[in-house]
Amino acid sequence: MSTSIEIWNMACMKIGADRITAFGVDSEAQMEAELGATIYKMEKRALLRMYQWNCATRRQALAELADAPPNQFSHAFALPDDFIRLIELRAGDFELTNKNGDGVRKYVIEGKTVLTNETNIICRYTADIDESLFDAHLEEVLVAKLCFESIYAIGQSASAHSTFGQVYEGKLNEARTTDALENPHVVLKTNQLNVVRR
Length: 198
Hints:
Elements: H1 4-14, H2 30-49, E1 57-61, E2 63-64, E3 75-78, E4 83-91, E5 94-96, E6 107-110, E7 113-116, E8 121-127, H3 136-150, H4 158-181, H5 190-197
Antiparallel strand pairs: 1-8, 2-3, 3-7, 4-5, 4-8, 6-7
Helix pairs in contact: 1-3, 2-3, 3-4
């Protein structure tokens, strides 16, 4: 797939801006290079955080930190360096959830740390992946998002901004639908329902 510069250049081409060779400094397209340096990483990470993208989903056993947290939880675990968004935490065969109705939180996330009373934690999460790992739909959505977010900066009109906003929403909905169809729906077994009801 494409690099960050190639994705940014696709957005520049669509909005009528000049292509760049590097973020930050580019003698031929300085405004576009500076704008890309300002917004690209932020918009990429925001897009990855918006949804559980299959191509960006990872699983990892979390490393327990040596010092126990000074509060109601007895264990602290470090989140992965590339962590963007939590999808699921598991302790053994059981999902940790804060939606069990008993008012007791099973975990909290503070900064880059998970606090819990459980051990042997497996984290399923959205990672800050390299653009070469994007699927085609996610790449299209990022291009459309960059167009929408940068159109005013290059002097385009409000109507152009509105048009690119509609394109972005359409691409986002299409990508989410396709992504969701690739994973089967989860059907709870009887013993899982009993665990939730406790």
